[in-house]
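Hi V.,

You were right to ask for the full record rather than a summary. Here it is.
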Amino acid sequence: MKQQHLKVLRIIISLIFLITTTLLFVDFRGIFPASWINTVLFLQFVPSVIKFLNIVSIAAIGFIIIVLVTLLFGRVYCSTICPLGILQDVISFFSRKFKKKSRYKFSTPKNLWRYGFLAAALIFLVFGGIFLVYLLDPYSNFGRMASDLFRPLVIGINNIFAKGLEKLNVFFLYPVDYHGFNIKTIWFPVFMFGLVLWLSITRGRLFCNTICPVGTLLGLLSRVSLFRIKMDSVTCTKCGECAVVCKSECINIKNLEVDFSRCVGCFNCLQSCPSMSINYETVAKSKKSAVIKNATDVTKRDFMAKTLIYSIGLLGISNRTFGKNQKDTVLHEQNIKSTIPIKKENPVSPPGSKSLEHFKDYCTACHLCVSACPTTVLQPSFLEYGFTGMLQPHMDYNTNYCNYECTICSDVCPTGAILPVTSEDKKKIQIGRVDFIIENCIVYLENTACGSCAEHCPTQAVRMVDYKDDLTIPEIHSCICVGCGACEYACPAKPIKAIYVDGSAEHGEADEPHFDELKETVQEEFPF
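Predicted structure:
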């Protein structure tokens, strides 16, 4: 039976998913609408599970579809939908172009490692939150690579071409500033990319079959899938052509067996078999499949059922610590340095995240919101949320501030960690409150005029009042502050800010701001 077309179909679908998913993270112009983004990410397994736990709706059933598809066809998610899996295939493909002697061979499954990683992720999920889950989640890892590594590369290439075209008076492209590099958080996506690169070149899909908990879970389901790869013992010549192209190293040519729990459905074996002895068929169609050990099946089904129950269990709450020295934003030549330290009790989570607890429980740190944020105020955290919240985005007001009406992060979040909010509702959400340290203010230190904080405040929570010697100094009204951080970003005091936003553990609602009306002056007639 000729089934070579399955590989071609798989390649086409996988490239569509890889390209579209990558574009979501490297899109620095905001071309793609949120509805399009949600459609592309609908079938990503871990974000869909987390979103289902958060908001039970039809928009969060992508993982259920993946489970059903896996029970029918095996791990096609790993070969056609998972961006990290497809990236490994791309790396393997090009590595073989430079290393033509690269051939795979059957290897025994690393059950201790793969079930160990899965068990650790589930145990941590139940008792400690989703920290280990999102560190191992293939989609989130790809998102961090794309956002923190690929995106700045694309921006750099864009800037090079933009400057070159500018000399030719062509302005189709324009240079874009990048503010996302942080040595404290960039190391993890660099490490994971290096690990995936090395394993893809040397061992194909070993990462998927050893480290990835999603691959292991779907592999368990694949053991009872309806369609499987089967080898015909009558016509097979044991030439081994299938084994050397199997990127999962799961074809045992001696026993004519395929470990379908590790098979990612790449269909390389179908295309390589010269005697067409390998078929992708239903279990009922295979003579060997009639002999099944019932006890083994019961054990497998029992294990899978428990795994699914654990995977949708209650998320634990992790301990949090917070502390960070504020860096300066040089907007003013200051002679006298500020010395009073800032005391922030909480970091600031994005508007729509409801609370720090909710955000930590549902954010997988995929960094899609980081890529989509037009002001780049959302940055990967280091220890702002504590160790178990590392890499989850926080509002970094040293980098920029949150636009008053912007809701992009809530529109694109695939897990519901940031729930959708309207522009009008966003104006009332209090994600933090402003605090002021007069001893750090340059008006106090240098007896000079400033007012940068008040000029940038969209709600007039910071106002300038009379001070002395015809000077004015900030006065805060925290009840109408929404915590956007415009005042903190604009404050020229250094090395420590004079005004800052302390995050709210539970997001509240700010009081209605009362804007001062501008007095209109009417000139009766032209003076000359």
